[in-house]
């Protein structure tokens, strides 16, 4: 078989990946593969035929080289001792690049090169339709070849393919907690993991699959997926972020994942000129261009999506160009979202905001127990030595009751992500949110930066518990005021979007707030604009409304109360 180089030489980083994308070169770095085994697997893959295309062309004719790169790396890394040195692979590729068909071909190739008797291979799809499509492609490839028809038995009712020679099997099924429990696979392919990110059990199932693979040193795990049509979250975000870290050389210890990511660099995605809209750049992220998809067809489809409005355009570019929602395009209807990402300061904490500000206002918003409770601080920067404009600084925090994660499982993984970031608190006790908000108010109050009157803006509805707690902490009457909601918030909505555009607002840049902005839906009523819970439906926008409340009070040009307890007591923080 041959023996590849030592483990120390298996480096999966690809620091020149942007240049490789522009030049149409492989995204797989140079690896010490066993050439004979790698090319044997590629030859097998190339002979498979597309069963649903006129003339049934071979994969050699119909598949892009990116598929062969994966096959070469995966099957050329198995050494004489039966250890696979590329045990995992994460591929991010847009739709229409024959991802599911190629995945079926890779798993058939795995069956054909496999030497383990009764080995079990699995292909998991996120839905029944995708799993059925993968099975039809795999079984169709077998039916299109007389040799394969003799070797394999296709069991339609079980969605299983049996190798008659050594009893190895390939099962194709939906990603489910029950079917993944207790398996000890020789190889697994997961298709469209981004669809699974909302499943509360997805991380556990993936952990079980990885645990089962440990029993087979030649075992492998392949994840092939498109980008999500909403901000990445849950298991998809975890896997994507790690793959990016490996690709960029930021993750180097005990690396097992080979990343193959067809995506624009972040600088292109956040560029306000939106270079990713230019079809001249699309070849960078479309490895099957000219085969399963052509540029004229894509351009026509993109123009049709644009005609249907911003939401459909954003969905289209996320799926067909791997443009990440929350990086290159916002997901809400508020104009301020167009400039949001460009004004992020990831280092901005509440303590930093207090240190840099001459006055601070606070906003609080929350509904019932199934809502978020949001708090926002808006600080006006101290005068600049150069006489430039004083920016406003925005910081956000939110709280959610723990049972919301059970009631709203569609967003539970996102909420857990935000909690890990430190921007959301999952309340174990029902009063944790009230106490947390009061802690924020008290911290700013003790700094002396709250105005004497009108420093804390509250939604008039459902604030009794908050007011009671502030009173118990000796926050003076008059500091907390009601901020009328609905169309009367329009000045804050317009003011924030203008200041975001001209660069005079800076915010703390949390992923939570990017998600919240995606939930914000705008309704025009006469000369006013509304961003409300009603127009957002069941989605969570409370922290954004809290920010509007704080901005509304700051727009009144308040002055700080003074008498900083920090200064008087020599404290830097509460």
Q: How would you describe what is shown here?
A:
This protein has 574 residues and is of the alpha/beta class. It folds into three domains: 7-268, Rossmann fold; 269-325, no CATH class; 338-568, Nucleotidyltransferase, domain 5, CATH 3.30.420. It has helices spanning 17-23, 35-47, 59-62, 65-75, 99-113, 128-143, 146-151, 177-180, 202-213, 234-248, 266-270, 295-307, 310-320, 350-356, 404-407, 409-421, 432-447, 464-472, 490-502, 511-519, 533-536, 542-554, 565-569, and strands spanning 88-92, 120-125, 152-155, 160-163, 169-174, 187-191, 220-225, 257-261, 357-366, 373-381, 392-401, 424-427, 456-458, 480-482, 505-507, 522-525, 528-531. The strands form three sheets. Strands 3-4-5-2-6-7-1-8 form an eight-stranded mixed β-sheet, sandwiched between helices. Strands 9, 10, 11, 12, 13, 14 and 15 form a seven-stranded mixed β-sheet that branches. Strands 16-17 form a two-stranded antiparallel sheet. The N and C termini lie far apart (65 Å). The model is unreliable at 534-538 and 566-574 (pLDDT under 50).
SSE layout and pairing:
Blueprint: H1 17-23, H2 35-47, H3 59-62, H4 65-75, E1 88-92, H5 99-113, E2 120-125, H6 128-143, H7 146-151, E3 152-155, E4 160-163, E5 169-174, H8 177-180, E6 187-191, H9 202-213, E7 220-225, H10 234-248, E8 257-261, H11 266-270, H12 295-307, H13 310-320, H14 350-356, E9 357-366, E10 373-381, E11 392-401, H15 404-407, H16 409-421, E12 424-427, H17 432-447, E13 456-458, H18 464-472, E14 480-482, H19 490-502, E15 505-507, H20 511-519, E16 522-525, E17 528-531, H21 533-536, H22 542-554, H23 565-569
Parallel strand pairs: 1-7, 1-8, 2-5, 2-6, 6-7, 9-13, 11-12, 11-15, 13-14
Antiparallel strand pairs: 3-4, 4-5, 9-10, 10-11, 16-17
Helix pairs in contact: 2-4, 2-5, 5-6, 12-13, 17-18, 19-22
